[in-house]
């Protein structure tokens, strides 16, 4: 991977400021609760299953507010059922894949995957491994790339801890274009994952949606919740990019800024 040293320097210099901005997260969670009535303006769902995957050290409890919003919008939203996300330990990905298969069998429909941070890497890996079961992938502040690729990071952790870590190598790079529609929500002021590392690769069914948010507030931010609901409401096999015209133009920056 070719390293952009200018961008890398900018990320390093801005890191302390971005990290300090993570104090916004509680306010963003509160705003997400306060504005839930406004989410009724988002398109309603069609009842298809949605698997919600937590960030590192998160759990189904962490993701419960998001699942509640999605259920209210008309989706069969469910958690991953694996407790606290401690990274891709041995057996974790296989359990996620089985959860995907079970949901597909239970509902008889493809499953949408919503993953926050590390959860987005699981979602991408599942879409690459079993695209016939996945309707679309929505990631939030997911570290797709960087000076140290996710696969290399797991190898470092494995050497340090002695515990098997990582996602199946046969899947290939997790920052490759997905064979299903993919939407990446990111924030330029993310204090944990530099925003360039979260961008979805260019593709006919790929897009990036900017949210002005902290990393730990992204999964509860009102604008993120609306964008997720909007993306999930699209008819299957008729994907279109997020519409930034009208009122949305004032709230969601256009992709030309990337």
Automatic annotation (TrEMBL):
<dbReference type="Pfam" id="PF00561">
    <property type="entry name" value="Abhydrolase_1"/>
</dbReference>
<dbReference type="GO" id="GO:0016787">
    <property type="term" value="F:hydrolase activity"/>
</dbReference>
<feature type="domain" description="AB hydrolase-1">
    <location>
        <begin position="93"/>
        <end position="155"/>
    </location>
</feature>
<dbReference type="InterPro" id="IPR000073">
    <property type="entry name" value="AB_hydrolase_1"/>
</dbReference>
<dbReference type="InterPro" id="IPR029058">
    <property type="entry name" value="AB_hydrolase_fold"/>
</dbReference>
<keyword id="KW-0378">Hydrolase</keyword>
<protein>
    <submittedName>
        <fullName>Alpha/beta hydrolase</fullName>
    </submittedName>
</protein>
């Amino acid at each position: 991977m070719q390293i952009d040293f200018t961008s890398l320097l900018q990320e390093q210099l801005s890191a302390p400021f971005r990290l300090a901005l993570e104090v916004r997260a509680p306010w963003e969670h509160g705003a997400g609760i306060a504005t839930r009535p406004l989410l009724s303006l988002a398109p309603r769902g069609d009842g298809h299953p949605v698997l919600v995957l937590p960030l590192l050290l998160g759990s189904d409890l962490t993701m419960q507010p998001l699942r509640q919003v999605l259920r209210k919008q008309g989706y069969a939203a469910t958690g991953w059922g694996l407790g606290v996300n401690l990274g891709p330990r041995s057996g974790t990905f296989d359990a996620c894949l089985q959860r995907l298969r079970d949901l597909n069998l239970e509902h008889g429909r493809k499953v949408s995957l919503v993953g926050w941070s590390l959860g987005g890497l699981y979602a991408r890996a599942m879409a690459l491994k079993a695209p016939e079961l996945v309707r679309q992938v929505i990631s939030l502040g997911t570290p797709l790339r960087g000076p140290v690729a996710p696969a290399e990071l797991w190898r470092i952790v494995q050497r340090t801890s002695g515990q098997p870590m990582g996602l199946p190598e046969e899947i290939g790079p997790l920052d490759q274009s997905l064979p299903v529609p993919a939407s990446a929500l990111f924030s330029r002021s993310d204090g944990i994952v530099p925003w360039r590392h979260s961008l979805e690769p260019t593709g006919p069914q790929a897009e990036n949606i900017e949210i002005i948010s902290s990393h730990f507030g992204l999964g509860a931010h009102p604008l993120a919740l609306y964008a997720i609901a909007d993306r999930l409401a699209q008819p299957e096999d008729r994907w279109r990019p997020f519409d930034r015209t009208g009122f949305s133009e004032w709230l969601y920056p256009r992709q030309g800024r990337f």
